[in-house]
Amino acid sequence: MFRLSCEQPEAGCGTSMAPGSELSRAGDDVSGLVSCEEVSAVLHAHRRWDDGATVRAISHAQHLEKLMSMGQSPLPVFTHKELYDNQSLDPVISRVMFFVDRGRRPSRRERVLEANETVYTLRQWGKLTTRLGILYRVSKHPVSKKKIFQYVVPVSLRGLVLKGVHDDAGHQGQQRTLWLTRQRFYWNSMEKDVKEYVAHCKRCVLSKAPEPEARAPLVSIVTTAPLELVCIDFWTAEDSNNKSIDVLVVTDHFTKLACAYPCPNQSAKTVARVLWNNFFCVYGFADCIHSDRGANFESSLIAELLQLSGVGKSHTTPYHPMGNGQAERLNRTLGGMIRALPARSKAKWPQMLNTLTFSYNCTVHETTGFPPFFLMFGRTPRLPVDVMFESVLLDGDTVDVDKYVQSLGEDLREAMTLAQQHASKQQKRQAEVYNRRSKGHSVEKGDRVLLANKGERGKKKLADRWDSAVYIVVAKNSSLNTYRIQHPTTGRIKTVHRNLIMPVNFLPLPSWEEPESHGYLSSGDVF
């Protein structure tokens, strides 16, 4: 029990409450505690509060209407009659409702006259029921075991149901969407339709990775002599002053010889100068230079330099670093060697690059079975440890120049033959291991594909994984797993790797089309 005290209406209304024990101690004489004016004040305050709630509700509704974007219609709400009429006008559900309302299964003779889908639905006989004329399938929650009344959805409403449980529910995966559907609805092909709808959903296709992601078989580049193919790439790291240092990494594909040159920048002029002064004039001119599609490697200056030198040029497909895998692998190895340096040496790692690459070139390479230095120069390099123990480390017999040249040639020819055999064996083994995980649907000429969205700027975590344009495959190179794809409207042709495209033959050209409608009755013609 509480004490309530009020002031006059003219002065407003206020209350103060105290425990009922005080009131109980006031004795039996409680007359006069509440006057007529006080009661009037309480009633007046309640009326003002009720009126205020109505005003606030109207204001809130008007505010929501202003927030609704132009052209956006409110959520449709189907009446009981509309839902009943949609079931009644469905040729399958109407027949099921007839038998359920009759309370008796159809006889064998009656089943012969019914459509296959009707007979299939009637297999749920023990779970079918009607409530206020509406047909339901009664199921149980898998955990709580509570009854779930699933509305049997006619064809006319299935598209709207799928949109509601998927598009309007966060574009979740097949299993989650199917769970949402099963908690509310039922129709014969529900699981198949849900999975197909999610798999072909425009937003899901563009924004999510396919399962499984494409992984084309590994194709190895084969070379047979030093400087037949030289791979180049840039690698960047910070020095002790947190200043970015660009390093031009150059590696010979056959011998695996590695070179690393610190550069002030990644401009084409810098690349041309370093290649000429530090590589071509030391090791000789390569048959071909291989790189990614960076502007510094694809510039007219580099093209002119290579043309004057008689050097060919090749490049990877866009956004596919595996196409220059040897340079990428050397970048990782170089980073690991720098991290392993002592703190004092690590602080000046750009000055240590020659030492690190020399050490790398002096050790045996897993692919060839020989040190890169030996395959390039035909001799074993002399190391500091050789100087320390020269009294016990015996070299070959001293010979004259002619015999040395002859011996060198024989050793190099034998080493190159063995290196080719060893490299071929290792490449085959690596390809077998990699190809065990290769997956993805076959893509043929004429197929429709989406191109991976690798050029998105800004917050890439939120960007669509695939470009919305649907391309046509116009050519296929099976040996390299590359494809030429054409934009349907601009006609522009791109060469891309298999891992960067996804077959989408279910999508129309040149633009998306809405699914076919099967409407009978609707609420405001919203579906």
Automatic annotation (TrEMBL):
InterPro entries: Integrase_cat-core, Integrase_H2C2, Retrovirus_Pol_polyprotein, RNaseH-like_sf, RNaseH_sf. GO terms for biological process: DNA integration. One of its GO terms (molecular function) is nucleic acid binding. It comes from the Eukaryota. Residues 429-446 have a biased composition (Basic and acidic residues). Pfam families: Integrase_H2C2 (PF17921), rve (PF00665). Residues 222-380 form the Integrase catalytic domain. Residues 1-20, 424-446 are annotated as: Disordered. PANTHER family: INTEGRASE CATALYTIC DOMAIN-CONTAINING PROTEIN (PTHR37984:SF15), PROTEIN CBG26694 (PTHR37984). This is Gypsy retrotransposon integrase-like protein 1. It comes from Salmo trutta.
